[in-house]
Amino acid sequence: MAVQLAPQPARPGSPPTQPNGILETPIGELERELPMVYDGQIPLGDLLSRVMQSIYAELSELAETMPNMSDAARKRILADWVVKTKKQVAKLYAVVKWARDADTVQKCMNQQFEDSIHGLNYGKESLDPARLRNHDLLTSLDVLTTGSYLRLPTCIKKTILPTLPMTDLEVKSTLLNIEDIIRYRLQMKEVIPIEMSQHRIGIQIRRPCFFTAPNLFETSICLQGGRPDDGWFCVDVEFLITIGGDLTGVQDFPRKPTGIVKQYVTNEADARLAMYLPLPPLQGPPEIQPPPKPQLPDGFIDTPLVRLFNFLQMMSLSYQLEVLWYQAERMRSLGWGEFLSVRMGPDRKSMVVAYWTQVIHFTSVRPPSLPTQGRPRTKLPALGGAITISIIESRGPSQTGAGSAKSPKARIMANIQRKSKLGNSRPSDDVEGLEFRVSWEPAQGALGVDLPSESSTMPDGHLFVDANSLDFEALLRRVIRYHTSAILRVFQYQFQRTNRSVFSSPESSQALHVRLCADEVVIVTIDSRTGRLNLRDTGDLAAAGRGPRFAAISDKLNEDPAVLLRALFQLRINTITDLAEQKASYLGLQSFRRRNFLSDELAKLGPTNRGTLFIQLSSFPNHYLVLVITDERFRYALITTKILSETMYANMIMEDIAWLDFDRIHGDDITISTRSDNATAQIGIKRKRNHINMPNVDLRLCFAYFLLQICCNSFNVETQVLRELYSYCCARVAYMNVERQLKLRGIPFIHVNPTSGIVTTPELAHLKSSLARSVPALCVQSKHILSGAPAAEAAMPNIRVIPLNWWSEKSAQVVTCVKLKYVQQPMGKKAAGTSSIIRPSKRIIYDTTEAVVSFLSENVNTCVDEFLEEWARVSKMVVIAREVAQMAKKKEWEDIRLLSFDLQTVEFVYALNYTISITCEDQLSPAGGNFDLRFSRCPPSPMSDHHKSDTFNPHDDAEPFLRNVLRHGHGRLAPSMHRLVTLLRDTLSIAVELEAIRRQSDQDGCSSAISVKLTNPRHALDFRLMGDKRIIILDGSYSLFDFKASNMDSPDELGLLPIPHFQDIITSTIQELDPPTRTSLGKIALVDVGLICESQAVGMLGRALYTKMLAIIKVTGSNVS
């Protein structure tokens, strides 16, 4: 503040003087002049400020770091901080208690200086009486002339005789007279500024006259005397201010100045009041002359109250400016120091505060998420804006004349007062109209934004200094809030006006809410302290893991804020990818954001591709469900990949791309689109389609609302939707593998609805998905797929191939459904029960009601081969079961009956209680496969107890020969089946007899083969089946085809030996038969080396021939085996 010191005139109430003319200095002033020693002490205010700053900094750090922690970690850290801070505050409280004795400690430390002062004072007081007095010439003359003293010294009279005090009435009268004089002077002579025209006179409270200037000051003044030329002097001053905000340090700026400040203000006020008054006579050496007083020019009248108002007005405004400066500096000490600069003008009439000050550091490496795209980095200013608070003189319009700005009423009243009190004279001083001017200048380019002209100035009434609430922080935050809103409005305009607008309805206030997708909202804020851009989210994924990512993006944005739009766009893509990846993780699917594709492969996904998520099909590692992120929605594709092993990094390529239309998948039509047309892609979400009749609604509003809904919901992928897409892709790949196998075999096929005409069985109920009707099935003709297969005639023309389990975590399966022409009801243990569905094996399910056989294949890649193998087995069993069932009717074999049939095995009785069980093996082998025959006998009654030998079927020994009867019957299975049964029935008597002979041989200690080879091993008895159920019994040493080999006269030659006397044995055996028995045996014919008989005679003749032959061989010395 600019003030000029002037000589202080003598006024009432000045300090008294001693008789010797020396001014007595008050003790308080002497104490203030003592040097203060702070050895080992620090100011309590500094200690309090430092502790509070430390607590504030720790709280700020916790507020930034704790959201990224778990709940347990936050509680633990907060508890530790509270304990530590409580200890610090307790220590600080103890220090404050101790600080009560700081004055005592200070006085103790200053004792040595006080002792020195007391010693000097004692010397002064001792030497004053010891000095010589001035020569008393009058007393000397009296003594010389009269010889005695005529009078006492005046000092004795003044010292001894006290002055008579005034009475109460005299005091009251004097004060009332002074009050009248003051009132007269104010009403008639003194020019009072209109700004402090509010005044009152109150002598009774020892403050004569009070002047009040609203929002500036209140002062009390009094006259020095009752004479017309006596001047005024200032008694007290109070600044009418109220400090708001942080009240720390408010004691440094009291409303009523005290001490040195008050003395300075009152001295300066007295100097201005007595500027043109004559100086009182000074007592001192005559050679010392005071400076000359200024003189009023002619025609001017002294106006001391105007000068007082001008001075106190400047003092009040300067006082307020100092308060604001102190508050700004305190903000710097509380964490704003790096981002706030405060500069006071040299005349201390103006203050400039720059906010968001920072040192810009440029880095040469940019993050991959914010590509530069050939664009140079924006050069940012070193500050965000500046606030200037200055004290200026307000001038009224030129039409009203010179002077400060006043209202019309105040201007008229001032002119009336001037004319009535001054007449034609002019006042010595004019009223100076001072006021605060607060201006704001935003830095263009702050945060990469050039504010438009309408946003570069704040509205009227927003920038002001309120004396009733001096709060610089509130003023600064008001400016920063407006600046922040202006910057965010520019960002909002950029988001809404960009050609590629993908954000929905950002809300602009102190925070910019940008809806990325679905419920994911990113909040863009500007830190009021640092001026840095901050990003945070409020969606479902607002977890601790996102904190570092948003912090990194915010750091890069503050290096170049111009890339905010691109950063949000990339963040939007990453957020959408995170949501989809999270849903895939919930489903247990393996997903990848990137695959090792060649550089030009991703271009196959279309020009609108902004991001991708590859979900690998677990059952088909070379196939992926790809979620292609575009500006508006998801697109879904099923791709087939191939690894290029010849490349250095084993790159991948896309062999095939199929675009999926999810809406049509859930519709009635089943569509597999292989086009890459963007216009056909639909949004992969499920939503209700409501048809609303709105005849009077603006179509533009409807369209805007529709776009908003699309933008909000287009990327809200439900878990069920993703599951169904994944399942559909698994189904499509399974079908592709099946189709590939059919194409390799040249088998034509068509797509059909898998649910039409198919009865869902309980066994297949779990093998079904909600998308089953949307996934096309394959239909092939039996004449094509079963071409060359055995028993192709057993199947109906249409055969369906349907992959299963593609919707579950299990490996995919394929079911092939064949309807049989010949329906034979299953029988046996596996077919027992009330259910019409049987499952003879893991891979075969048979519906007896519909005669539909379902073949399950565990491996999709070999399903056709497995089906053909199973079909070859099942079809043969069906044909065999059918033929067996018809044999009793067509052949009149009443003893033939079917015991068991389950598509895998056929078991039946071919004669009496002799049974055979037939199964198939290796049906696709080049040799045509094998038939496995198992012979046994069924007991007459299930409850009867039979020996194990009673269940033995003698045909079991001939199984290797009998199986060839069916093996070579491919294509003619039914005739070969008849041949096998006929052969079994015709040879049953032979087999039974031979088995009896074998048992007898075992009892006799001999061994025999099934054909009863009588060997030494040199003798054998040969039984052969001929046509018309005739049997020939021969000597085994003779061959029916090579007669040379039959005549072996030398016993040393290899081969069988003739049975001795074999012809005699035959003749004697026949002759021993009685006529009735011989007649019952049928025809018997003798041949050279044996005999021919009918099948019913084999048992008796064979047993008799064997007995006699064995006896003759024993006699001749040969062994039979």
Task: Describe the overall structure.
The protein starts with 26 loop residues before the first helix and ends in a 5-residue tail after the last helix. The N terminus is likely disordered. The chain contains 25 helices and 34 strands. Helix 19 packs across helix 21 and helix 22 packs parallel to helix 25. Strands 20-21-22-23-26-25-24 form a 7-stranded antiparallel beta sheet. A 5-stranded antiparallel beta sheet has the order 15-16-17-18-19, with helices on one face. It is α+β, with helices and mostly antiparallel strands and 1121 residues long. 36% of the residues lie in helices and 19% in strands.
Summarize the structure.
The chain is an alpha+beta fold and 1121 residues long.
Strand and helix layout:
Blueprint: H1 27-33, H2 44-65, H3 71-98, H4 102-109, H5 111-127, H6 137-146, H7 154-160, H8 168-189, E1 198-202, E2 207-213, E3 217-223, E4 232-239, H9 259-273, E5 300-301, H10 304-336, E6 340-344, E7 350-355, E8 385-393, H11 408-422, E9 426-427, E10 434-442, H12 472-497, E11 504-507, E12 511-517, E13 520-526, E14 533-537, H13 546-559, H14 564-586, E15 590-592, E16 611-617, E17 620-629, E18 634-643, E19 652-660, H15 662-665, H16 699-713, H17 719-744, E20 750-752, E21 777-781, H18 782-785, E22 795-804, E23 813-820, E24 837-841, E25 844-847, E26 852-857, H19 863-890, E27 897-901, E28 906-911, E29 914-921, E30 930-937, H20 959-967, H21 973-986, H22 988-1004, E31 1021-1025, E32 1030-1035, H23 1062-1071, H24 1075-1080, E33 1084-1087, E34 1090-1094, H25 1098-1116
Parallel strand pairs: 5-9
Antiparallel strand pairs: 1-2, 2-3, 3-4, 6-7, 7-8, 8-10, 11-12, 12-13, 13-14, 15-16, 16-17, 17-18, 18-19, 20-21, 21-22, 22-23, 23-26, 24-25, 25-26, 27-28, 28-29, 29-30, 31-32, 32-34, 33-34
Helix pairs in contact: 2-3, 9-10, 19-21, 22-25, 23-25
